[in-house]
Amino acid sequence: MASTELDTQSSATEKGVNKHSAIQTFSSEHFINRELSSLEFNSRVLEEAEDCSNPLLERLKFLAIVSSNLDEFFMIRVSGLREQAFSAGAPQDKAADGMAPLAQLEAISQRTRQIVARQYTCWNDSVRPALKAAGIEILETDKLKKKQRQRLDKFFRDTASLVLTPMAIDPSHPNPQYHNQGLYLATELKRRKARGPKILFAVVQLPAVLPRLVPLGNDKEPKFIFLEEVVASRLPELFGGYDVLDWTTFRITRDGDIDLLDQEADDMLHLIEERLRARRRADAVRLEVPTGSNKTFLKRLVDKEGLRGASNRNTEKYSEVYHLPGPLDLRTLMDLAKISNFDHLREPPFTPRTPRQLVRNPGENLFSNIARRDILLHHPYDSFDPVIQLVRTAATDQHVLAIKQTLYRTSGDSPIVQALIEAAENGKHVTALVELKARFDEAANVNWAREMERAGVHVVYGFMHLKTHCKLSLIVRREGERLRRYVHLSTGNYHPTTAKLYTDMGLFTADEDMAADASALFNLLTGYSQGHQWRKIVVAPDDLHRKTIDLIREQSDLAEQGLPSRIFAKLNSLVDRHVIEALYRASHAGVPIDLIVRGICCLRPGMKGLSENIRVCSIVDRLLEHSRVFVFGTGNNSQIYLSSADWMPRNFHRRVEAMFPIDNDKLRQRVLKEIVPAYLRDNVKTRLLHTDASYEPCQPTKDDVPFRSQQELLQLHEQKDSKNPTPSSA
Hints:
Elements (H helix, E strand, L loop, with lengths): L2 E3 L2 H6 L11 E3 L6 H17 L5 H31 L14 H33 L3 E3 L6 H18 L2 E4 L13 E9 L7 E8 L6 E3 L7 E4 H7 L1 H4 L3 E13 L13 H12 L4 E7 L4 H11 L15 E4 L8 H5 L28 H7 L2 E5 L5 H12 L3 E8 L7 H11 L3 E6 L7 H14 L2 E3 L6 E2 L2 E9 L2 E9 L11 E8 L2 H16 L10 E3 L3 H17 L6 E5 L5 H13 L3 E5 L16 E6 L4 E2 L3 E4 L6 E5 L5 H5 L1 E7 L3 H17 L4 E4 L5 E3 L11 H15 L7
Parallel strand pairs: 3-8, 10-11, 13-14, 14-15, 16-27, 19-24, 21-22, 22-23
Antiparallel strand pairs: 1-2, 4-6, 5-6, 5-9, 7-8, 9-10, 12-19, 13-17, 17-18, 18-19, 20-27, 21-25, 23-28, 25-26, 26-27, 28-29
Helix pairs in contact: 2-3, 2-4, 3-4, 12-13, 13-14, 16-17, 19-20
């Protein structure tokens, strides 16, 4: 493929770099397609479900996660490509790897079908039989025993039949609006008597208020049947006077992106609520049906929704209809994975620890501990409780004057939000920056915003055109004759549930420079205040992109001078073209680069003369690797940063993000000697990215000692706990 000259933005961003490197142009061959890389992450998640060495209920979770991830992928990524490919006059922007929108859709369709086929093979041939062998059985209607049928009759009579609504479709009953991700049962019926058409097409929504897996057993011998099987067997009761000719289930995925660009509204809260309602009625992007579904049903659905399917002769390479050999929407398996009395089929539980620095002596409080030294938390090995406790303590502390807090995602019963409400009721000056545009958490955030406003919290929503993605808490406290500021910064959300499931890192500090930056950042978010000279925190969209490339370039300069250099980056996604090009230049200069990229990676490692010094791997394990950790340089000269941002254009240019340094020597040593080496040594859950964009499990050889980073970090914290027995309740 033809090379593409570096554009003006890239040249300006990396001004002066060409005098150090002969690399001036990059071709599309140097980049991996973003969308296909995203699908490869789902393939790696699926590998965990396929791995029989994992506990059975953990495998079940991974199967559910694959479905959840694919839903989001279609709602956000595929919908955007579809608009480009099929909307008249839409720009046909090519990806960095040179693929046009339609070509990407065709490749996505092909790869998705391969992944889904593996997913259902895993469910049908491995996981479901293993569940049965373990005493957890999924039944079918034609194999029910008498007592089970009686129990099912009672469920349908007393519960389901009161909720379900049969919907005929004919000229006087137009097609209903099928909800995004809703599960429906379609049926063709023949009239026996009374009124109505001779042949009737009808649908029944299977609402989420009913259990998808209807229980028919007991706690010791749990047995379930899928709701659609129950409803299908009772269709003659729902449609009295008709005989059932055929039936099938179907599920439609719709465009789920809430685009606020070019939108104007006096009240962002109302705008978000309007867009949430619109999401349910957005364009369809995928239709899922069981294998062997009635062709008449398919044609009706494809034509009604404007989908591209088998009937569209001009798009044979791209179909939006997916035929699945099993129950639709395997997200429901996550509920099954939570079944009680089967802990032996799960990973052993662990109790997060409270760091020794936060074990308070009589007369001490949380603030005095933070004032004494910076404290680093590595979740979930370190408990999230101290973060909650900081806000709770501030809410009741008579010396605290103000609390400022960003909220991107939080739990339904958020203790952080409750503490902010209590603080406002206690007369504190409380400000909460609630990001209403947090994808798929918009509704929860709208509810929290309204509740906090009623309690007297000053709620703001950030900027219309930027998401506020930084994770930041600031507390102002009077101590004697002075005011002192306490800050918490994090790579993850203020969400106590995901803090037990995701790996993230957070910093408590009372450092004056960090506190001044935190205050300035809140002033920017709440009042557009600008002009602050940032001392330590690096903020997007102002400086983070430039600073990241500068840090990479500094290592290139060192390498070209023959001095020690190194780059380590652990993040969720690597997409930004200019950062990738800077990494290529650094590799060409001789900088050793280790990248642990959990999800999307558009950098192509191992290319001769370009990326030979770059090693890219992905770790997928029981905990979601979510922390963003960056190390530039070696030994005592290294610069260590944590960040809320991945290396993606959206994080650099369309979000408010924060990257912050780790300056304390003990904390630096913890990162350099404990955390980073653990990830680099992993040879059990690591997959290596090859030049051809494929991933290969990094299996230990017979001479290697198996090393699983998450397990080793857990054991390390348990050893610390044995020296400091103060278990947390998290």
